[in-house]
Amino acid sequence: MSDHSNAPVAPVEAYEPPYYAAVFTAVRTPAQSGYSETNERMEELVKDIPGYLGMDSAQTPGGLGISVAYFRDADALTQWRTNTEHRAAQERGRAEWYESYTLHVARVERSHGFTRGEVPKSPKTG
Amino acid sequence: MSDHSNAPVAPVEAYEPPYYAAVFTAVRTPAQSGYSETNERMEELVKDIPGYLGMDSAQTPGGLGISVAYFRDADALTQWRTNTEHRAAQERGRAEWYESYTLHVARVERSHGFTRGEVPKSPKTG
After folding, report:
1. By CB count within 10 A, which of A89, A117, B19, B44 is most buried?
2. Which residues form the ABM domain (chains A, B) (predicted)?
3. A70 and chain B in contact, CB less than 8 A
4. Is residue B81 part of a domain?
5. A124 in a domain, yes or no?
């Protein structure tokens, strides 16, 4: 396990367009057995996808959760979508963990970032 | 003020592509005077933009906040981006409320939704 839990939180930065974003918004059920472990495993697994750029997640307690994963191209996204272990997790999510969700897959056309006290910089090419 | 605070939370549903998503991820400063009021005002104001489809927001306490606003087309997004009152709010955000943020503007190419106990349905044309 890495010791990054106290690292300062920062959003995934702006990459040079085009790139892809998978926006997953969900409301969870009360049945959350196994959810955290699977979620952590998925967060590790996705890092192995060539072209994966990063992920932002936020969860309002008792409310909506949003995760946005960024990928360099559509191929990277397809690899992630069809990953066997990820598919099993999706299936279990529908069976147990999610009351409702929406997935929006989108091509980023424009982006920019802001960091307090920093001069604006060019998007990351990564 | 509307009395919707106890309405069940549900993510914005899948619309028929293409449509646009503006993904705003942010970490806030400790200086939050005026933030809530402005945020509520923006959530009302955006509803007047023709082509506005909805917004999802989530905030991890002490962590990242994510808001995703959906629009039917690029024109609607431009109207929102250049709205005078919205621009003033953005300016104040950079001056006071945000430690860092990233904005990703993306064209949704594919989407689907899931609701527990419902038969999958076609995307909303709205």
Report:
1. B19
2. 31-92
3. yes
4. yes
5. no
pLDDT-based confidence at residue B7 (cuts at 50, 70, 90): low
Per-residue pLDDT reduced to its tens digit, B45-92: 999 999 999 999 999 999 999 999 999 999 999 999 999 999 999 999
On whether ipTM exceeds 0.90, the answer is yes
CB–CB of B11 and A21 under 8 A?
A: no
Residues of B in contact with A101 (CB under 8 A): 11, 113-114
Which chain A residue's Cα is nearest to B19?
A106
| Contacts A5 to B, Cβ<8 Å | none
B47-55 long-range contacts (CB < 8 A, ≥24 apart) are: B49/B76, B49/B79, B49/B80, B49/B83, B50/B76, B50/B79, B51/B75, B51/B76, B51/B79, B52/B76, B52/B80, B53/B12, B53/B15, B53/B19, B53/B126, B54/B12, B54/B13, B55/B12
Question: Does B83 fall in a domain?
Answer: yes
pLDDT confidence band for B8 (50 / 70 / 90) = low
Q: Does A101 touch chain B (CB under 8 A)?
A: yes
Cα-trace Rg, chain A:
16
Cβ distance of B104 and A70 shorter than 8 Å? yes
Average pLDDT value over all residues in chain B = 92
Task: Kindly report the CATH number assigned to the domain that includes residue B98.
Answer: 3.30.70.100
Domain count along chain A = 1
Of B9, B27, B61, the CB nearest to A10: B27
Instruction: Output the pLDDT for position B86.
Output: 97
- A106 contacts in chain B (CB < 8 Å): 20-21, 106-109
Domain that holds residue A51: 19-108
> What spatial distance separates the first Cα and last Cα of chain B, rounded to whole Å?
26
Listed by number, the residues of chain A in 33-62 with a beta carbon closer than 8 Å to a beta carbon of chain B are 56-61
- B6 occurs within a structural domain: no
| pTM exceeding the 0.90 threshold for the entire prediction | yes
